[in-house]
Amino acid sequence: MLTHVRVLAWLHIIHSGLGVLLALSLLALFGGVAGYVGSVTHDPDARVAVPILGGIGTLIFIVVAALAVPGIIAGIGLLKLAPWSRVLG
What we know:
Elements: H1 2-40, H2 44-79, H3 83-88
């Protein structure tokens, strides 16, 4: 049974780590698009879109990271065989 708990812990850590990586990638993507729009066009309407794109990217990053971080915490707790981590996992 100890092996099963450790495998589950590593699966939680890997899955949540990929979630954090996805959140960082989306933040970089939206930041890059906002920077591109801001540097290429000189239209005043496009200048309004730059902070909106950055805000959307930041919001997506916060939501995805907030959903992924508890999985990492649960995985670390499962590796240490903490009783609370089974409930969280």
